[in-house]
Write a structure and sequence with these properties.
Elements (H helix, E strand, L loop, with lengths): L66 E3 L3 E3 L24 E5 L7 E5 L7 E9 L3 E3 L14 E6 L6 E7 L3 E6 L6 E9 L37
Antiparallel strand pairs: 1-2, 3-4, 5-10, 6-9, 7-10, 8-9
């Protein structure tokens, strides 16, 4: 990787105490930062007050042990963190599953529940419910423009008796029509899955499930469309 180049500052041969951008060459080494110490026992009252970095911009950051986030989140052996916006890349050692959540048990004190999110070769979302005494499943309005209507699949589980249930049609990606081959009153559970567009502004962009590479940085598509919670 070629280090980015920056313009050097103009030489004005004057000093000032104002805040100013840094300059210099970009070091591509991973190393520990230094701490400047003056060794002085007193700081002159007429000297410029020193600056400290409150906001920083980095090209890459390598964490050897843990990263504290505010006062609530720490990245380490046990990961707890606030919400992130953008790409989050990290290393999950062994066979760790990163797409999980861990919450207190709702009714049993001192116990917790851990669930793992479903995984698959698509950005799948679903709706489910029960259909009784009617033959249409209304799909969510917010699916319009968000999902690929050609990828809709429907699973039906008949309740109480055999009804020979059939998906008659899926109209405009908005309504699923069901019919009974035995002319029975419909009573069933349903589950409707659909693939969300990877990029809703570019419906041709597809998920590359298997690709050549050593890390998520080698993904052949647009990495800006994903939040990578961990990899190994």
């Amino acid at each position: 990787m070629t280090a980015p180049k920056y313009l050097p500052p103009e030489l004005t041969w004057t000093t000032h105490c104002g805040d100013a951008p840094t300059f210099g060459r970009a070091s591509m080494m991973y190393d520990f930062p230094t701490k400047g110490i003056t060794g002085a026992t007193e700081y002159p009252s007429d000297a410029c007050q020193p600056w400290v970095h409150y906001n920083m911009k980095l090209g890459n950051l390598q964490i050897l042990q843990s990263l504290s986030v505010g006062t609530t989140g720490v990245f380490g052996a046990n990961v707890t963190a606030p919400t992130f916006v953008g790409n989050l890349n990290g290393v999950a050692s062994g066979n760790k599953v990163s797409s999980a959540f861990d919450i207190p048990h709702a009714t049993q004190e001192g116990k917790r529940i851990r669930h793992v999110c479903a995984e698959g070769p698509e950005a799948g979302i679903y709706v489910r419910g029960r259909l009784t005494g009617k033959n249409t499943i209304e799909l969510p309005d917010y699916w319009d423009g968000l999902v690929d209507p050609d990828s809709i699949t429907v699973t039906l589980t008949q309740i109480g008796s055999s009804q020979d249930l059939i998906v008659e049609s899926i109209d405009w990606g908005k309504v699923v029509k069901i019919k009974s081959g035995t002319a029975s009153n419909i009573d069933c559970f349903y589950e409707v899955w659909v693939a969300r567009y990877i990029n809703r502004d570019n419906h041709e962009e597809k998920l590359h499930v298997v690709y050549d590479g050593e890390s998520p940085a080698d993904y052949p598509g647009n990495n800006d469309d994903f939040i990578i919670g961990g990899y190994r």
